[in-house]
Specification:
This protein has helices at residues 18-45, 113-120, 122-136, 159-164, 169-186, 190-195, 206-221, 242-311, 313-329, 355-361; strands at residues 47-50, 54-60, 63-68, 72-75, 82-88, 93-97, 99-101, 107-109, 137-139, 145-156, 225-236, 335-337, 346-349. The chain has 365 residues and is of the alpha+beta class.
């Protein structure tokens, strides 16, 4: 039986075999397909898009090269040679502590189980509550426990620092914010925390102080973030003491009235006492002035007598004696001598009607 070659199995030359007949086409198709894949890969990996408020921090082989943007379609080296990191520099971002804003705009916190479970489910909600409990609990300066909920609004002002200086900048902002808030709450009494004021500085609140402190920390850590606002969402005492605290608040108007009445009475009595003290002070000053002037007058007279005495001691001494006698007898009236056996009294001296003055002056001897 004669042998008839099978075209599909005969490998003798390209004119006779299937491989020989279609091999170059398969090779061309393979090369073309591979080239297409490569071109598609280059095309898809050489372009990227940015949002309207975004810029791209581009790293080439792990090193920063440039900042591109904002927005639009941009080119880069393919296959991961260039790695752009998108950063939104226009959007104001928000971090919430101790609560969450739900999609419907309502707030869910530690005390609103129904809203939280309905939105997140029981398991995740319980996990969030455990985290919030530790975040909210803060000791005040007077060693009272308070629950503080707050929010931080920030914006990225340095995209390179934000993308490259820290591995997780949002986590850093959260940790620093909690640290700052605990420090501020620890410097205040529980009343100041609950009213968000400071008695010595009525215009000062916790939010502005926290904002200034946070900006200092962000600048020192080179995070590229600027804090725009810090505000307290809610402050309260622990649930276990909430009923007692409400009773205290209910009694606070009466207590405040009693304090105001006491302060009014104190001020009135203080003003009266200060007036009396001022009066006594003025009287004492007047008395001191009188005594001082009298003493100066007596001293002046003494010095005058001393000067005359030094000039003529005998005459001055005699005159001083007569003046002393005049002082003694001025109110004595007439002096009468009644001797035993005498019928009439004998008048010794005329000490009235100018008699004394005439004796002192040398008129009657």
């Amino acid at each position: 039986m004669a042998y008839e070659p099978n075209d599909r199995l005969d490998p003798r030359g390209e004119e006779h075999g299937l491989l020989g007949r279609y091999g170059h086409k398969i090779l061309n198709w393979t090369l073309g397909f591979g080239a297409g894949i490569i071109l598609l890969s280059v095309g898809f990996s050489s372009f990227y898009t940015l949002g309207s408020g975004e810029v791209a921090v581009v790293k080439r082989l792990g090193h920063y090269t440039q900042t591109v943007g904002p927005g639009g379609l941009h080119m880069k080296a393919p296959w991961g040679i260039d790695r752009p990191i998108s950063v939104d520099v226009q959007k104001q971002q928000k971090l919430e502590f101790g609560y969450l804003t739900l999609d419907n705009g309502e707030f869910a916190d530690l005390f609103s189980d129904s809203e939280g479970i309905g939105h997140y489910g029981t398991s995740k909600w319980n996990h969030l509550k455990s985290e919030w409990t530790e975040t909210q609990k803060m000791f005040t300066g007077d060693l009272n426990l308070s629950y503080v909920q707050w929010a931080v609004h920030y914006r990225i002002v340095d995209p390179v620092a934000y993308a490259l200086n820290t591995e997780d900048p949002k986590h850093i902002i959260m940790n620093v914010s909690e640290s700052v808030m605990r420090g501020i709450v620890g410097d205040r009494s529980v009343d100041e925390v609950l009213t968000n004021t400071v008695k010595e500085k009525p215009a000062s609140t916790i939010g502005p102080e926290a904002k200034a402190w946070l900006n200092e920390k962000m600048l020192a850590l080179h995070t590229g973030v600027e804090i725009n606002e810090v505000y307290l969402q809610n402050t309260r005492v622990p649930p276990a003491v909430q009923p007692d605290f409400e009773l205290v608040n209910a009694a606070s108007p009466a207590a405040q009235k009693a304090i105001l009445d006491a302060e009014k009475d104190f001020n009135q009595k203080l003003n009266t006492a200060m007036g009396e003290a001022e009066k006594i002070k003025k009287e004492a000053e007047g008395y001191a002035f009188t005594v001082e002037n009298a003493a100066k007058g007596d001293a002046g007279r003494f010095m005058a007598v001393l000067a005359e005495y030094q000039k003529s001691p005998d005459i001055t001494a005699k005159r001083m004696l007569l003046e002393a006698l005049a002082t003694i007898f001025r109110n004595a009236g007439n002096v009468w001598i009644v001797s035993e056996g005498s019928a009439d009294p004998i008048k010794l001296l005329n000490l009235t009607n100018g008699g004394l003055e005439s004796v002192v002056g040398g008129g009657q001897k």
